[in-house]
Amino acid sequence: METTFGPALKEWRNVRRVSQLDLGALAGVSARHISFLETGRSKPSREMVHHLSEYLEIPLSERNTLLHAAGFAATYRARDLSDDEMAQVRAAIDWTLDRHDPFPALALDRHWTVVRANISAKIMIGAIGLSEGESMLSAITDTARMEAAIANWAEVAQHLIVRLRTESTFVGGDPILEATANRMVEERQTRWPARPESLQAVVPIQFRAQDMVLSLFSTIAQFGTAEDIALADLRIEMYFPADDQTRQVLMGMANTT
What we know:
Layout: H1 5-15, H2 20-27, H3 31-39, H4 46-55, H5 60-69, H6 87-100, E1 105-108, E2 114-117, H7 119-126, H8 137-140, H9 143-149, H10 153-170, H11 175-188, E3 205-209, E4 212-221, H12 229-233, E5 235-241, H13 244-255
Antiparallel strand pairs: 1-2, 1-5, 3-4, 4-5
Helix pairs in contact: 1-3, 1-5, 2-3, 10-11
């Protein structure tokens, strides 16, 4: 029985820009066998599909597709965060977000839907008209809304476009992420700021807050051993003050609540 595994494997190898020889060396498999798998002369075992997927860093949802292409049943599930099986994961997310207050922190899914947010993050996303359960993609394509909320939106937008495309490439191409990036480029193609000669260590996001500007930068964390599709796509984004004024304001807000 002919399968579509070979072309799918080759496509992922090209996405990762890895030669047959390099993949073989990484995975401990001969380049000849990789070639045979791609041309259909050899049929992979379920274990080989998993093995090559690990070395190509193929996302879990796409591994299911690869397994199906090789004639096997899907392995990975996508559980809802409210499921009983996810209780410890849910507790870990809530603990991380709560401990990060008074600085904003939120959990985002693959399409930037706000799955969870701490108190500070709820205030932050509320300033751009969002709440838990809504996607940030709808906001970042609204230039007027973002410029009203973020003083350096043009600079931040450039970095978000790169992030969107990087995330899309990692999963083998995501139409929603790509469409968002393209729309942002179209809307801002004549309004990019000049790139400074001396770059900062990080680009802060400068939120307008009444008569002041609060500067924050973010870090992104994810679960390192996830074997659930939804959990593997989940990102925890934590914001930190980029200057003393922002730190003092946020700490002061915490002391009054």
